[in-house]
């Protein structure tokens, strides 16, 4: 059975036995916050438990490294939707130790792309089209600096209202949170 077929078979039983009832809630977050975090597999269940949140409590946006790399990309749009349409009042950026984006080397990733069938011509076309693919794929050195950068991008965005924007780092082994930016503090 393929992975897709396995998912669909489970889902069929999930719906038929009405297991979805355990997760019924509204589209508005009970705790009125939106969290930007990493897509790391270790955080899927650990992060909500470490924050004491359950289904319906928060809006969660996931991306590699919890990075806001473009002020008008889909990450910022999602945060704006959460704030203006879905009643969130605070933003938390939560990075984590041992992140795959930490120390990521763009050239190594490009080589992996080529090994999986992306042509040198495609890479060249992107570069000649004004996309600096090496810069776009580059990771970060320190997770705390990366979190502070994303907080700064969000907080200083021209469309973000006056809301607290916090920055934290979680240990993916223990769930321990370390504060990087307290969004309640005035600069």
From TrEMBL:
EC top class named in words: lyase
Catalytic activity: hydrogencarbonate + H(+) = CO2 + H2O
Domain of life per record: Bacteria
Keyword Metal-binding in annotation: yes
SUPFAM superfamilies membership: beta-carbonic anhydrase, cab
Gene3D superfamilies registered for this protein in UniProt: Carbonic anhydrase
EC number: 4.2.1.1
Keywords, comma-separated and alphabetical: Metal-binding, Zinc
Keyword Zinc: yes
Cofactor(s) named in the record: Zn(2+)
Family assignment from sequence similarity: Belongs to the beta-class carbonic anhydrase family.
Protein name: carbonic anhydrase
Lineage start: Bacteria, Bacillati, Bacillota, Bacilli, Bacillales
